[in-house]
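hiii so um. not sure if this is the right channel but i have a protein structure encoded as tokens and i wanna go backwards to a sequence. like what aa goes where. can anyone help
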């Protein structure tokens, strides 16, 4: 009986140690398109590489049940506009873009397609922002 239980637990937990990627393929594609949409893509988000699970990428969090990206917190200097591809992260609940004085343009209407979004914070770095208070 013990051997049967041991065998059962081995198969139950073997997926966790197999190196299998949790990240949903469409989320990984959307994140890479997001990264490469910025003019300085070769200088930012350097941990975002195909050989790593996108749930482990810097600034990305995935829901433990669905394995879908539900939080994106980019604390790097993004240079450009928020791309429409952000709408492909359909499970996204939190989007924070910090320290991005070169983030320009309006919030794209595509963000309105994110039905699960509860927190949106497009922010420039207060130390480098122009304008005032």
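sure thing!! here u go:
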């Amino acid at each position: 009986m013990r051997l049967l239980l041991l065998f059962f637990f081995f198969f139950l937990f073997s997926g966790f140690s197999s190196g299998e990627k949790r990240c949903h393929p469409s989320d990984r594609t959307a994140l890479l398109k997001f990264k490469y949409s910025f003019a300085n893509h070769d200088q930012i988000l350097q941990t975002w590489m195909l050989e790593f699970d996108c749930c482990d990428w810097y600034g990305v969090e995935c829901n433990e049940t669905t394995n879908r990206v539900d939080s994106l917190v980019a604390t790097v200097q993004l240079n450009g506009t928020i791309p429409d591809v952000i709408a492909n992260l359909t499970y996204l609940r939190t989007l924070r873009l910090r320290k991005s004085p070169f983030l320009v343009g309006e919030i794209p209407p595509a963000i309105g397609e994110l039905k699960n979004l509860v927190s949106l914070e497009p922010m420039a770095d207060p130390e480098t922002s122009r304008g005032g208070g």
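oh and DSSP finds two helices and four strands in the chain.
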